[in-house]
Design goal:
alpha/beta; 5-stranded mixed beta sheet; 4 helices; about 20% strand; cell membrane; protein transport; ExbD; transmembrane transporter activity; membrane
Length: about 140
């Protein structure tokens, strides 16, 4: 005598609940582990052009000095004078003596003296890795 096996409806349909749970867990994981844009980059500055500019590939623990078109310096979105920036930079160098980097973001309309002052500040505090940020553009910068 042959047995008849009834197929149930539950076995023929695929349950999507575990798949949705996995997707939500992945979404939460990537949201928690992703790096958000730093406050220093929110200041509206028009960067000068350079033909050999290259994008930064890795974000390190960097100290960003923004200089607006009038020559005023900002760190973390707050306006500061050279003495206050020097104190912050000395503390940053004390925390990270060998790998501390400084990025100087100056508006293209700023006179060169504030940029030189920021570079001199880096040299005085012992920072050997500093750079001036530019924007890739046509040769000649016009």
């Amino acid at each position: 005598m042959a047995l008849k096996i009834k197929k149930s409806q539950a076995a023929s349909t695929l349950s999507l609940t575990p798949l949705i749970d996995v997707v939500f867990l992945l979404l939460i994981f990537f949201l928690v582990t992703s790096e958000f844009e730093e406050e220093e980059r929110k200041l509206d500055i028009v960067l000068p052009n350079a033909t050999s500019a290259s994008p930064m590939t890795a974000k390190t623990k960097e100290f960003v000095i923004d200089i607006n078109a009038t020559g005023k310096m900002f760190v973390g979105g707050r306006a500061m004078n050279l003495d206050a920036i020097e104190d912050l930079l000395r503390r940053a160098v004390a925390d990270n003596p060998t790998n501390q980097t400084v990025v100087i973001r100056a508006d293209k309309a700023v006179p060169f003296q504030p940029v030189v002052s920021a570079m001199d500040l880096c040299n005085r505090t012992g920072v050997s890795h500093y750079s001036v940020t530019t924007q890739e553009g046509p040769a000649g910068g016009l």
